[in-house]
Amino acid sequence: MSIASRSWLDEARKVLDLVAVQEAQIDRAADQLADAIAADALVHVFGSGHSRMNTEELFPRIGSFPGFYPIAELALSNHVGVVGPNGLRQAMFVERVEGFGRVILQQFKIHPGDTFLIFSSTGINGVVVEIALYAKKMGLPVVAVTSLQHAKATESRHSSGRKLAEIADITIDNGSPAGDAVTAIPGLRYRVGPTSSIGAIAVVNMLKTATAEKLMERGVEPVVLTSPHFVGSDEGAQQLERVYEEYFRRVGRAYDPVGAIAVPESWE
Fold this sequence. Notes:
Layout: H1 3-20, H2 23-38, E1 43-47, H3 52-58, E2 68-71, H4 74-77, H5 88-94, H6 100-105, E3 115-119, H7 126-137, E4 142-146, H8 148-153, H9 164-167, E5 170-173, E6 181-183, E7 192-194, H10 196-217, H11 228-231, H12 233-251
Parallel strand pairs: 1-2, 1-3, 3-4, 4-5
Antiparallel strand pairs: 6-7
Helix pairs in contact: 1-10, 2-10, 3-10
């Protein structure tokens, strides 16, 4: 193994070690998520940029289950069109635009009992801060997964001056250092090899497994998306249909106006 790749692996282990010592926060967050899912409410999961990966890791993924509602806003998270239409410049510009968070939230219905789980390694950009502020204004709990080191080293890009970690009811550190990339190469001006994704994905799966455990303790068996290669093709196909139907049942809440909370005119 090269010196550089070994260095990155060592730093990645440190990130996972930092995630591992946050059992108390993860347990509290899983209780919040399990309470919502057990009550047929939704856990709205939001992330922009590369943090979109974390929303999709929660659902739909093998070993995941309905109850999580990923908000994958393509304008904020396109990883293919670096230049040209839907390019990276556009995505990086839009994620700082105040007012866009409110527009996103207006596209579905939010109800009492729902919870927000928000991912942002930086935790400072306008849209992600705004989503959190609106969720709190609507009286909903917010769980944040972010880099505390990065938050401490940078200023908010939102007019409130606040950062995601300061808004959330429960904050979980993804363990990534400020700047994200960790590996120095001799003669290369900038570091390579980010670690925020590995930390956040670890948090996702710790939350997912702890939530499943707590749901079973509450007498609610989650409908798990499983691999047909190991449960048999017939059972796998049947389970996939069960997952689809359970998701249909639950996600209807996101489009049901009855009892929904109106998105406020302002987060203030």
